[in-house]
Amino acid sequence: MATAIRQSRQLLYLRISRDIEKQIDRRVLRVGEQLPSIRMICGQYGVSMTTALQAYHELERKALIESRPQSGYYVSWAPDKFPSIPATSQPATAGKDDQTEEIVQKVYNSIANKNLTMLSLGVPAPELLPIAKLNKALLQAVRELPDSGTGYENTQGNSRLRRLIAKSSYIWKGNLTEDDLVTTSGCMNSIAYCLMTLTQRGDTVAVESPLFFGILQLAKSLGLQVLELPTNAQTGIEPDALKKALQTKKIKACLLVSNFNNPLGSCMPDEHKKEVVALLEQYNVPLIEDDLYGDVYFGDSRPKPCKAFDESGIVLWCGSVSKTLAPGYRVGWVAPGRFTQSLLRLKMYHSLSSPNLLQETIANFLEKDRYAHYLVNVRRTLHANSIQFIRAISEYFPEGTRVTRPQGGFMLWVELNKKIDTMELYEAAMKQKISIAPGRMFTLHKQFDHCMRLSYGSEWSERLDGSLKILGRLAKNML
Q1: How far apart are the first and last CA of the chain?
Q2: 225-229 vs 332-335, strand pairing mode
Q3: Which of 74, 240, 284, 305 has the most CB atoms around its CB within 10 Å?
Q4: Residues paired with residue 72 on neighbouring β-strands, in sequence order
Q5: Using one digit for the tens of pLDDT, what is the confidence trace for 408-457?
Q6: For residue 312, what is the DSSP state?
Q7: Which phi and psi (to 5°) does residue 454 adopt?
Q8: Of residues 86, 207, 105, 90, the one with CA closest to residue 441
Q9: Is the peptide bond before 124 cis (omega within 30 degrees of 0)?
Q10: What CA–CA distance (Å, rounded) separates 174 from 131?
Q11: Does the bond joining 263 to the residue before it have cis omega, within 30 degrees of 0?
Q12: Cis peptide bond N-terminal to 210, omega within 30
């Protein structure tokens, strides 16, 4: 009962802060304007002073308001001061970039360097993770599993974990059962199984552009042709471009990150998802859907994946806790639809089974709403971080810089003046112990040279603000 009351209070102060944020966003409240007093908020919403103060502190975390001694709270920032959003990408169709793999290796060779400000790594920082509770769940798994988890699990994977994932799918109308799911060693492992199930060397796969380099390099290693399609920074893949590609090219599969794409942070509207699934069903082209970031939303509810609109089993829905809970556990899953038996055979040939101990650990954490409760705080932190990053970029970076405005996930895509080469910027930033992800990593063509991806997965701090200030100065010096 006490827990429910605390959660209710928490949701109330978040609702108040969102109400005020909407007023700032719509310019009902403008920069420099004084906000209602704490007492007025208490009266308007029927809440305690503690709850009202929590709401204002939440807005302060996002740098949207500021407190002035003996005066009250004032609007200090507004979305109309944010940089413009990048235009829809127009990816190249010729001229492969042989340096992409080399750039990826160079950037990620420094992944373990604790002295760097790691703006290139797209995972939540350790301080955001519930490590003590995960350790407790791990010990529980060791105690309760037969043979302490040292034995083989069946090929389909831990049944308890699959049941809990299936249960969560009812939130977005997926209506899955545990028999619809296969566990894997992370989302990339899911995508690899899907690609190997659906394609053969020489086949063409249609994808968004830019796209996470891991997927691109995986497809390349399997000998696949990758067709990069125009992608909007807010709404994702352009359905008309996909339709044209399906009409003119022999596409064997489509692969989309439908919710909070890496690196753009785009989220496809429901009507686009429905249209894309219908198109692919018409042309009998399966969709591999990477829904790795779907739980990291900043709005009121989780966005539906394309799988919610799949009536024929053509969508292979992939997920994981690698970006939300435990990156190193490598616990993932896939709902392969009508391709389940083919994918299961492939998994049996390649790995026989998945590590049962870690799957049972995640199942322990998913029970009793611990995961959902933990995600509330993570989403709050990441949302505040995203706004702080955008504010800093607008203050410190060269005029004309464009930046995405994601509604979930961990990533910002920054588009600089075309005179700036972000590989050169990377080299200069590394001398200042700052790591970024140059845009060339997210394509197989020679493009996006003036772009970069920044991760806001760490707690906001003066050090981060200072690093962005240095990065902005280095960019200005390259003009």
Answers
A1: 60
A2: unpaired
A3: 305
A4: 68
A5: 999 999 999 999 999 999 999 999 999 999 999 999 998 999 999 999 99
A6: S
A7: -120, 140
A8: 105
A9: no
A10: 30
A11: yes
A12: yes
Q: Please, what is the angle between helix 462-477 and helix 370-396, to 10°?
A: 40
Length of the chain: 479
Listed as ranges, residues in the chain with pLDDT below 70 are 1-10, 79-80, 94-98
| Per-residue pLDDT reduced to its tens digit, 244-295 | 999 999 999 999 999 999 999 999 999 999 999 999 999 999 999 999 999 9
Which residue from 349, 359, 452, 460 is spatially nearest to 60, judged by alpha carbons?
Answer: 460
| Rounded-to-integer distance, Cα 233 and Cα 265, Å | 7
**Residue among 161, 212, 110 at smallest CA distance from 321:** 161
| pLDDT of amino acid 1 | 39
Strand pairing of 182-184 and 204-208?
unpaired
What's the one-letter identity of residue 389?
F
d(CA 183, CA 186): 8
**Structure-block tokens of residue 139:** 């010990």
By CB neighbour count within 10 A (0-12 exposed, 13-18 middle, 19+ buried), where does 475 fall? buried
What is the rounded CA–CA span in Å between residue 470 and residue 465? 9
Q: Is 113 exposed, middle or buried (0-12, 13-18, 19+ CB in 10 A)?
A: exposed
Tell me how far apart the alpha carbons of residues 394 and 408 are, in angstroms, rounded to a whole number.
20
- The single-letter DSSP state of residue 170 is G
Q: How far is CA 380 from CA 110, 209, 434, in A?
A: 29, 28, 25
pTM check: above 0.70: yes
